[in-house]
Fold this protein.
Amino acid sequence: MAEENAGSGERREYRMEELARRAGITVRTLRFYRERKLIPPPRREGRIAWYDDHHLARLRTITALLERGHTLNGIAELAEAFDHGRDVGELLGMDTPTEETPVRLTPEELADHFTGEVTPENLAAAMDLGYLGTDGEEIVHISRRLLDVSSALVREGIPLAEVLRAGREVRAHAEAMADLFAELILRHAPEDAVHRLRPLARSVVDAELSLAMDRRLRKQD
């Protein structure tokens, strides 16, 4: 094993045999995964192939997803979507204050939140919508509240694809409401009042949505 220390961080590299042993698979299986492009190519040093902790994490994810019933073809498609996901820093805008709490998830944990619904199509849709970003081998959901609500809806039997489609529509309405309140506040209050009065805008939206649901339920009865 080759090890490189860089400041407080440590980068580990492994030969194929050690990587397979640490991942709990055979060298033959490792070669098969590499041929199927389920893991990134190793670093070459002459005739020697060096793998690192990124490869080890990916191999452990493959094993965990296989145990959850995913096929190798499905995992390959998930890996491709995952590798092309946007970086979480791009999604969150680190300089912009937010009231939402991001959630870091392994691919296995994401699969557990949405049992049977984490397909390449749904993963790509969630990333395109901006719900999910990547940070190394981790997936980051931009909002604990949205994650909890989405998984609750799926547990009630609503397909994740439909939840994401609804989320896209809600996003469009939310953007319009944010523009409305920001324009209203900026027209009549100091610029810094947008952040201070933000809770008031959210309360109006919550109340109006609650009243709208009341009206909808009365029609249904």
Observations:
- The chain has ten helices and seven strands.
- The radius of gyration is 22 Å.
- The longest strand covers residues 9-14.
- The chain has a mean pLDDT of 85.
